[in-house]
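Protocol step 4 of 6: structure prediction from sequence.
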Amino acid sequence: MATVLVTGGTGVLGQHIVTRLRVRGHDVRVLSRRAGAGTHVGDLTTGAGVRAAAAGVDLIVHAASDFRQFGKPDPMQTRNLLAELGDVSHLLYVSIVGIDRIPFRYYQRKLACEDIIAGSLLPHTILRATQFHDLIAALLHHVRRLPVAPLPGDFRFQTVAAEDVAVRVADLIEGRPLWRREDFGGPEVLTLAEMAEVWRARHGGPRRALPLRLPGAIARGFRAGYNTCPDHTDGTQTWAQYVATDPATAYPLR
């Protein structure tokens, strides 16, 4: 049993990571800005409370992220976390497939976090995963009542269950630092148009999708599937299986 600090432990992925580590017998600390949401109150944007939360921990899973356009930059949070750490034997950072090939601002911030961690000399593992099912579900839930939904149907995704990623995270954090681990993706690559058809069959909307051809390098990257890793189909739950569970679409689109 190890003492593990999880940042972002109240998020879509973080909740699964916390559950999985506790099932395996670890003493898990959850860092949150909100009192009562986790086990320890701390703010990565300022560093307040982080040192106390990290005191005596053996392992750290850094899953905190702020993808809002005007949110607190992830690199600042990562620097503040590293500045408050003591002697930890392994830090695992959860990143995203394709962030070095798609010039999306949020992806650029995630890539900067990888560089900060790699340059820290702290024993670490960086795991890049593809987008979660929840993200596409939230998008389609948002437009499902529209008679015509403009969607970039030619975008390609290899969505994965957050639970599947959490299992891999737990496996990796229990092992030795691997610096950069192979990408982790869902079991299939689908276009957004194909995913929307599966969603429509279950939820009845959107009734019709209007193909939206977006310009620019970001759109070209998603059309080319730079955010996928077809050689690494490690996740087990397909998009259709996820949709069949009638999920709560609480993934924040902000």
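Step 5 (inspection) to follow. The two ends are 37 Å apart (CA to CA).
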